[in-house]
């Protein structure tokens, strides 16, 4: 079953397209990260899903129900979803349990059911022993968990999370990120998690949709996005990929043969003969000291620093593109080096 589906979803604000013909289908129970730079339309997509905005066109299906389409608009409270926004608000005069149970009143539930669901939601986020506390007695991370429990108590089919970790310090972020993974596994709810932090998206999500300027660039599992970026924007955004202009000479069973300056490289990819971008990352480059092999790139060291137990060199290659490569010893700026491309990916380039 689908978790949700967007089809041709479009939304403009004063002539500027915030969401532009978005098509996206996500399986039930997925953990989707909506990833992209600031202003690319992530929050707008969540607000459209939630019913807090009306689109200019397109349809939204949640489960097997069309909630937005020609002549159809299901109100937010009838969409069966939970939301946690970056600037969540708790009622300061209510206890933790009061905040969590608040949304359950008026749903026609018996008092015992409300109490049980509140207890269950607080247990899910590890706050069962703070039920009587007031929000001001909690840390920032605990308050964020109350906001999460409040959404979980509604037992939503779809949980929308807009940068829920953004205003927490790094240690708390890591702890809560692990908690999101556990909660996702335990509740089997479809999560939509908005972030502009690609490392967070890669670590958390089962599926990542990369947006740029309101358009979908690629939607795939983390490893697929990393290994086979569909566009230069995705290559740059995921894992800090660097793009080198190459000429694709042809393909063989072993991959693509590409020319980069004097070097002839064999790399994976899907590009026709002609201009291409070779996406490389530090994990796919290695220094080589072989005497001018024709399958290595010539480069010049610009800087070296000690990082992660080894030296990380800033090297200019090709048309002065900066790349990074690890090595065992420090190198002086200006030193000539040669690099083997152990892993890369070629994307077609418009000439
Ligand atoms: N209510 C609004 N009125 C006018 N313009 C808006 C409104 N909401 C969003 N926009 C515009 O739509 C575009 C997308 O905004 P959105 O908030 O969805 O981006 P975002 O990806 O969530 O960015 P961020 O990472 O900074 O939160 C932006 O150009 C923004 O200025
Ligand atoms: Mg936003």
From TrEMBL:
- Where it mainly occurs, coarsely classed, is membrane
A Gene Ontology cellular component where this protein is annotated is: ATP-binding cassette (ABC) transporter complex
Q: Which residues belong to any copy of the ABC transporter domain?
A: 4-238
Q: Look up keyword Cell inner membrane and say if it applies.
A: no
- Which PROSITE patterns does this one have? ABC_TRANSPORTER_1, ABC_TRANSPORTER_2
Which PANTHER family does the entry link to?
Answer: SPERMIDINE/PUTRESCINE IMPORT ATP-BINDING PROTEIN POTA, SPERMIDINE_PUTRESCINE IMPORT ATP-BINDING PROTEIN POTA
User: Can you name this protein?
Assistant: Iron(III) transport system ATP-binding protein
Origin organism of this chain? Answer: Aureimonas phyllosphaerae
């Amino acid at each position: 079953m689908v978790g949700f589906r967007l089809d041709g979803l479009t939304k403009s604000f004063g002539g500027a397209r915030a969401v532009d013909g978005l098509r996206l289908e996500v399986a039930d129970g997925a953990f989707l990260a909506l990833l992209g730079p600031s202003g690319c339309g992530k929050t707008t997509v969540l607000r459209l899903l939630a019913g807090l905005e009306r689109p200019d066109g397109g349809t939204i299906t949640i489960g097997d129900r069309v909630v937005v389409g020609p002549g159809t608009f299901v109100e937010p409270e009838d969409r069966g979803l939970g939301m946690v926004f970056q600037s969540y608000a708790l009622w300061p005069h209510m206890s933790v349990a009061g905040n969590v149970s608040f949304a359950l009143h008026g749903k026609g539930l018996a008092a015992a059911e409300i109490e049980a669901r509140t207890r269950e939601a607080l247990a899910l986020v590890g706050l069962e022993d703070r039920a009587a506390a007031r929000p001001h007695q909690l840390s920032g991370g605990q308050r964020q968990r109350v906001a999460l429990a409040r959404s979980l108590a509604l037992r939503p089919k779809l949980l929308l999370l807009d940068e829920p970790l953004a205003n927490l310090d790094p240690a708390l972020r890591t702890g809560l990120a692990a908690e999101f993974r556990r909660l996702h596994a335990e509740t089997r709810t479809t999560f939509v998690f908005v972030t502009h932090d690609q490392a967070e998206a890669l670590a958390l999500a089962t599926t990542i949709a990369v947006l740029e300027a309101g358009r979908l660039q690629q939607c795939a599992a983390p490893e697929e996005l990393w290994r086979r970026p569909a566009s230069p924007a995705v290559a740059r955004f995921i894992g800090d990929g660097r793009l080198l202009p190459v000429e694709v000479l042809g393909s063989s069973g072993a991959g693509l043969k590409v020319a980069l300056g004097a070097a002839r490289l064999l790399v994976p990819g899907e590009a026709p003969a002609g201009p291409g971008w070779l996406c490389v990352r530090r994990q796919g480059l290695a220094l080589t000291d072989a005497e001018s092999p024709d399958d290595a790139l010539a480069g010049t060291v610009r800087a070296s620093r000690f990082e992660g137990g080894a030296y990380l060199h800033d090297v200019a290659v090709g048309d002065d593109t900066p790349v990074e490569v690890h090595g065992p010893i420090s190198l002086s700026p200006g030193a000539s080096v040669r690099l083997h491309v152990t892993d890369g990916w070629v994307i077609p380039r418009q000439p």
